[in-house]
Amino acid sequence: MAVSSSVPRVRFAPSPTGFLHVGNARTALYNWLFARHSGGVFLLRIEDTDIDRSEARHELQLMEDLQWLGLDWDEGPGVEGPHAPYRQSERLGIYREHTDRLLGEGKAYRCFCTPEQLEAERQEATAAHRPQVYSGRCRALPVAESAARATIEPFAVRLRIPDHPLRFHDLVRGTVEFPSETVSDPILVRSSGMPVYNYVVTLDDALMEITHVIRGDDHISNTPKQVAIYEAFGWKPPEFAHLSTILGGDRERLSKRHGATSVASFREMGILPEALVNYLALLGWGAEGGMREIFSAEELVREFRLERVTASPAVFDWEKLHWLNRHYLKAADPERIAELAWPHFVIAGFLPAAETASTAAKDWFDPLLALFLPAVNQLDELPVKAGLVFHFDPAAARADQENAAILATESAQEVLAAFASRVRTNAGTVTPPQFKTWMNEVKSETGAKGKDLFHPVRIALTGSHSGPEFDKLIPLLEDGSRLTLPVRVLNVHERLEQFLGGAR
RNA sequence: GGCGCCAUGGUGUAAUUGGUUAACACGCCGCCCUCUCAAGGCGGAGAGUUCGGGUUCGAUCCCCGAUGGCGCUACCA
Prior knowledge:
By secondary structure, the protein is mainly α. The protein has helices at residues 22-38, 56-69, 92-104, 115-127, 143-152, 197-207, 223-233, 263-269, 273-282, 297-303, 318-331, 334-347, 359-372, 382-385, 387-390, 394-399, 401-407, 410-425, 432-446, 451-462, 470-480, 492-503, and strands at residues 9-12, 41-44, 108-111, 156-159, 166-170, 174-178, 187-189, 212-216, 239-243, 246-247, 314-315.
């Protein structure tokens, strides 16, 4: 290994076995924040030694998700760098050389034990209330015998765990120590010849001169073994930082069981990357003083300290993510949001594909979006919230219990009649000032005011007694009705007639 | 079974790293605004810091133990 460099080097090392999970996304984020804060190097390495589960498409997806979050890597697939290759499946030769060295120096040994023998040992250990560590049966095999058997028998390679306590420093937990007796001689290389995760990870971290290993706390128990590997090679172990687990509402490790957990699904739902990044940063870390919640990526980079990362597990909270997402949805450039929101209306069957849409439709979409955006947590809720613009069902409106109660009053009938007579005398486009005038006239004619005045009209026009301001809604309906869309938007006249017609 | 990590309102985090009426945010409740629903503004309830010991003049903070949660305990990653 080369001399450790002065600039911090960190890595994110996912295995391409599925989608990028939020937990891993947070790990990636903290690595990235640390690197950017300290002017260090952020490296991406693909851990694909599990050939059965690793897939190239997952690797692509992983990189896409990382990019979407804005986490760019300085070395790794796509950019390469001085320690290429960055895919473990392409580094097998490197691992082999190092294994030979360990074997040659007696730091590791061949193990000829069968799975059955090993299993029996484990059972014994449990029965005796002893830790499950390998007995060391093959540890003391004479070199000549070991070499001889190697030519005819399959064998695994194990590391000789030293008999002193294995300790390491953790930036979020302090010093962690494991008694030697509780650490089993780990398998380095399987009898198939394929090196094992814990081994290659360590080799790569060392070879790639990683100075800070920031990863999930499920690796704490693996760390003593990795420290022993560093020791066997005479290398200095890096600093560690083990991040706590992200839990679901039931305090169990967050998983698919809890709903969407992949970064890709968040994107599809219409969660903005800046909201996710902000949220994930807050989940296990707090700025000094802890009195701020909204952080841009740049601000996070400036404020982030590994030392301020919490050691305790955190429960994933959709409400707070939504709060942040609403914030960023409102703060973002409307044009960008429009682009992101449009496809959701396409899926709903309300709008044509963006490429085929007229500019008139696009212009019409902006105020529509402005009207309904404040009401949603995530973009995919938009079509439902804006549904009243696209479809109007008088029968269903009348069937609704609350609506029926409102419509049943004499005052409501008077209001509707007075309103209808005015709408009918004017065949042109209804404008907000016009509408306002009518409502004032209806008000003085019927004596109805407030809810009594507005609710019947609202129901007749939108199907619901609650909804957005008429000032903004009316132009949307009128303009929308002149557009050619997959679904015809009904204007005020049409709505009123359909509603009244349905009653007769 | 063994080993390890963790423990502040419902949730995420703060608390000059032993001295605070334990703070902020989400959520919740209420009020204002408003035809309504959101948004926005204002206010409120909610923890005495898991429990028990210790150290100390004084513990959220240090030590020990218990309890609980989680992780690892594979020729998985």
